[in-house]
Design goal:
CATH topology of the largest domain: Umud Fragment, subunit A
Strand content: 25-35%
CATH class of the largest domain: Mainly Beta
CATH architecture of the largest domain: Ribbon
Distance between the termini: 19 Å
Largest sheet: 7 strands, antiparallel
Strand order of the largest sheet: 1-2-7-3-4-5-6
Order of helices and strands: HEEEEEEEHH
Number of strands: 7
Shape: elongated
Low-confidence stretches: none
Mean pLDDT: 91
Amino acid sequence: MIVSSALMIWKGLIVITGSESPIVVVLSGSMEPAFHRGDLLFLTNFHDDPIRAGEIVVFKVEGRDIPIVHRVIKIHEKENGNIKFLTKGDNNEVDDRGLYKEGQNWLEKKDVVGRARGFLPYVGMVTIIMNDYPKFKYALLAVMGAYVLLKRES
């Protein structure tokens, strides 16, 4: 029942926010001092809302599994309304063209997973620890499983 409730809440957040992933964890220090490793970001992705320079976006590029959290630094708007943009991590020396797929110099709206609307500092460190130390993840699951099996209802 807990798993079904969590899944329903997750799917509800996807519908409400318009983002395929309404909550993400910052995995690197490339956005410091704005966001630190382990910060939990809340995203929206409303297609009517135009992307502007200075916004922090989460995007996926072809060939990479993990979404990237960076700031939009340049907008290239065509007369027909198409928008392309360039991103850069606040703590990085150069823009993100080296992260995009080969031959790609700009991102498009289809690459955006969401835009940062709020955050909770360091809440995502649990996720990072579980990814960095798989034995910790399995130990935590074992403890939770044992608790469920051994707990008696009063």
